[in-house]
Structures are given as structure tokens and as C-alpha cells.
From TrEMBL:
Membrane topology: Multi-pass membrane protein
PANTHER family: ABC TRANSPORTER PERMEASE PROTEIN MG189-RELATED, ABC TRANSPORTER PERMEASE PROTEIN MG189-RELATED-RELATED
Main location: membrane
Protein name from the UniProt record: Carbohydrate ABC transporter permease
InterPro entries, sorted: MetI-like, MetI-like_sf
Keyword Cell cycle part of the UniProt annotation: no
Alphabetized SUPFAM superfamilies for the sequence: MetI-like (SSF161098)
Family: Belongs to the binding-protein-dependent transport system permease family.
Keywords: Cell membrane, Membrane, Transmembrane, Transmembrane helix, Transport
Pfam family, one: BPD_transp_1
Protein species of origin: Lentzea rhizosphaerae
Length: 270
């Protein structure tokens, strides 16, 4: 039984890694090898100079685009963890007259298609002069109704005994949240942080509209320039894709332990 389990996991892992292999293999090959009728497992000659061609391409500022994506993803991740965490804790633990109404309004935002709010958001950002500006890329994504709802559901199950002990020590809601709740919920924060980071990094449509200047391009916009109606730069497209997923892999590997804990824990370890 254990052998079958390991076999199934090995097959699943191999299938999961196939896209990564294809991206790396094609990124280090020539266009002739990629489009050849016969398949080779690995390029006959690895072209490391493809990296130089990618990062010195004057038409696509890859380094700048990666840096912009990193700044946007990090700021939006920390912004969501801060704002949505506070909002979720308030909805779960601080009773006030209109708490249910606020909760229903937050949930209602999840039912509104993104296409409905896209144009009004662009008008606001354009009016503020944030087009081709990192503020226009970052600020609209600092709050998420879905993340707020997840925080609220999580804090509902957080052990009240810990909060009551903090109140006895003289802490209010603010002190209890930062000194007791947050340190005991690192796994859940890390899990939502990974989700927020990946979501922000992979955004394409909003940066495509807002980042009209090359200096404000994100990596997803830069990737799209390799694939146009006039031409397709297959080699650089694959190599740029491989480079662009590197930060995601690093974040996932670094936080995978917290990611697993965040799915299962209820607020504190036994």
C-alpha cells in the first residue's frame, strides 16, 4: 500500500514539474530546436547567452519590470495582511451596531465582477495622476474583501482564553491584536501572504492598462511584449517565463511550512 502511495505521489510530482522542465528547456535552446519536428529531451548545446540577450534587450526592460513586480507584490501583500487582518479581527471580535451590515457589504463586494469596477477604478486612478505610476499599481490592490472574510472566519475560532488573559493584563483590543493574536497566528498570516503575493505577481490586465510607460511595466506586461501579432520571440518568451517564476518558487519554498500550518491550525499550537 505504501509503495502504491509513493508511486502515485511520484507520478503526480513528475506531472507537476513537466511545465517547469519545458520552460527551462526551451529557454536554453535555439528557436530551430524548439520548432523542430523531432523532439529532444535537452538542447544539443545549452545557450547560456540567452540570459544575456534577455537582460540586455533594449525593447524589454526585464530587470526593471522584475523590480516593479517585486515592489508591487510586496507592498500589496503587506498592505492586505495589515488592513484585512485588522478589518477581519474587528468584524470577529469588536461588537458594534453595524458590524453585520459591514460584513454583508464586504461579502457583497465578492459578488461584483471585476469588469464592473475596472473602468471606475481606472477613472479614479487617472484623475489622481497615477497612470504609469507605482501608486496606481499598488494602492487599488491594498484591500481585499475575500482576504478580510477569511481573516474574520479565522479569528472567530481563535481561543478567547488568550484574549481574556491579555485583557486581565490591561491590554485593549489594539494591544491584544498585536501582542497576542498576531504572534499566535503566524502560520495563517503566512498562508494568506503567499496567496496575496502570487496573486499580485501574476496580475496582467490592470498593469497592462496602468503601466503605459516602460519604466512602470511589471514582469507580466514585459512577457506580453515577446508575443505580438507581428512576431513571436519564442526563446526569450520561454526564458523570461522561467525567470519570472523564480521569485514565486523562492517564496513558496521559504514559506511552505507555514503554508501547511496555516491551512490546518486554529490559532495556536497545543
Amino acid at each position: 500500500m505504501k509503495a502504491l502511495r509513493y508511486l502515485a505521489l511520484s507520478i503526480a510530482a513528475a506531472l507537476f514539474l513537466i511545465p517547469f522542465y519545458l520552460v527551462l528547456r526551451n529557454g536554453l535552446a535555439t528557436e530551430q530546436e524548439i520548432t523542430a519536428p523531432t523532439w529532444t529531451f535537452w538542447p544539443s548545446q545549452i545557450r547560456w547567452e540567452n540570459f544575456t540577450d534577455l537582460f540586455t534587450n533594449p525593447a524589454v526592460p526585464m530587470v526593471r519590470s522584475m523590480a516593479n513586480s517585486l515592489v508591487v507584490a510586496v507592498l500589496q501583500t503587506f498592505g492586505q495582511l495589515l488592513l484585512c487582518g485588522l478589518a477581519g479581527y474587528g468584524l470577529a471580535r469588536i461588537p458594534y451596531r453595524y458590524s453585520n451590515l459591514v460584513l454583508y457589504l464586504v461579502i457583497a463586494t465578492l459578488m461584483i465582477p471585476a469588469a464592473v469596477t475596472f473602468v471606475p477604478t481606472f477613472v479614479v486612478v487617472s484623475t489622481l495622476g497615477w497612470v504609469s505610476d507605482l501608486r496606481g499599481l499598488v494602492i487599488p490592490g491594498l484591500f481585499s474583501g475575500f482576504t478580510t472574510f477569511l481573516f474574520r472566519q479565522y479569528f472567530l475560532n481563535f481561543p478567547r482564553e488568550l484574549e481574556e488573559a491579555a485583557r486581565i493584563d490591561g491590554l485593549g483590543h489594539w494591544g491584544t491584536y498585536w501582542r497576542v493574536v498576531v504572534p499566535s497566528s503566524k502560520g495563517f498570516f503566512a498562508a494568506l501572504g503567499v496567496i496575496a503575493f502570487v496573486t499580485s505577481w501574476n496580475q496582467f490586465l490592470w498593469p497592462l492598462v496602468i503601466a503605459q510607460d516602460q519604466d512602470s511595466w511589471t514582469v507580466q506586461v514585459a512577457l506580453s511584449t515577446f508575443l505580438t501579432s507581428q512576431s513571436i520571440d519564442v526563446v526569450q518568451l520561454f526564458l523570461a517565463a522561467a525567470v519570472s517564476i523564480t521569485p514565486l518558487v523562492i517564496v513558496f519554498v521559504a514559506l511552505q511550512r507555514f503554508l501547511v500550518r496555516g491551512v490546518t491550525e486554529t490559532g495556536i499550537k497545543d
